[in-house]
Every structure is written in structure tokens, then in C-alpha cells.
Amino acid sequence: MAEFYLGEIQIFGFGFAPRGWALCNGQTMSIQQNAALFAVLGTTYGGDGIRTFMLPNLQSRLPMGQGNGSGLSPRVIGETVGEENHTLVLNEMPAHTHVVSAISKPTLSSDTDQPGPTVYLAQTTFAGSAGATTLLYVPDNNPASGMSPAAVATAGNNLPHSNLMPSLALNFCISLSGIFPSRS
User: Fold this and answer.
1) What is the reported pTM?
2) DSSP helix/strand/coil, 14
3) Dihedrals phi, psi of 144, to nearest 5 degrees
4) How does pLDDT run across 81-121, given as a tens digit for each residue?
5) In what order do the strands lie in the sheet with 171-175?
6) Which superfamily does 1-60+170-184 belong to?
7) Lowest-pLDDT range, 61-70, 112-121, 175-184?
8) DSSP state, 80?
């Protein structure tokens, strides 16, 4: 069987870390008990660097190569980016329109041309038993008055949405022993 490098990360399709390996779940390790692995990783993934260091945490994370390339953002080893859930802010929303509600109901009559709970854009008048007639263009004695808030209602719940691409969960494990990697 091939010998592994100390600190090498492998993917396993079973639900545990094999002997000599640890899950890449961000666990805190003792420097005293894992001095060689600490010499390779340092505090790149956390720890106090005096008594402890941490293993990489690949839970709910996709691995990404460090460095940079043409047109790509530079990434430093140990850097985390992205988010599982995201709430859109105004600058991220696509340009769109909303439908204005201007429904006249005969049971909600009004004698005003001002916006309100029963009048959105116009004055409603009754035309006998035939029902209501809606006058959409009535004189506006107060052009600075706003529309009723009910005319264009708020849409959406402002809740975060999942930001994950289709994925398959596997175990990422790091070798706790093996050949000490030398620099080329």
C-alpha cells in the first residue's frame, strides 16, 4: 500500500475516518501530541499556536485551489469564501416592475379623489343599479399627496435563500502520519 504525506487530504465514501486519519471538520488538535502535523499546517485553520492548532473544516464547504489565475480572484490557503444562505439586497435585484392595484368595489364607495384604503387612483361613484363607475382621471387638488400604500404592496419576505449548488456529501480526511512533505 502506498504511503501518504503527512497532512494530505483524501476523500472517502464511508462514514468514518480510517486509522491514522482525522475528519476535516475543524477540530482542535494538541500541538504537543501532533508536532509534525503542526509543523506542516501551523495555525492556517485556527488555534492559538501555543498549545493548539485546528484542522481544515470542509463541512458544508467545497475545496478550492489557492493562488490566482487570469481573471480569477486571488485566494490564500486557509481562506474561506461564500455563504450557504443569502438575502438579496436592492443592488442585487434585477430590474422589475410591480402591478398597481386599482380595483373599484361597489361596496367600498367614496366621495373623494384622494388615495386611501378604499380609493387607490380615482373617485368611485355609483351609477344606479348598473353598478359602480370608476373615474380614473379626476382633478387633483393636491398633486403632492402620495398614493395609498395599498396601491403597490410590498412583495417577498426578505428571507435568505439557499445558495448551494447541487452537491454530494463525502468525508474529507487528513492524514495524521506519513511522509513529511519536503519543498521542491
Assistant:
1) 0.66
2) coil
3) -85, -5
4) 988 899 988 898 888 877 665 544 444 444 555 555 555 45
5) 9-12, 171-175, 21-23
6) Phage tail collar domain (3.90.1340.10)
7) 112-121
8) -
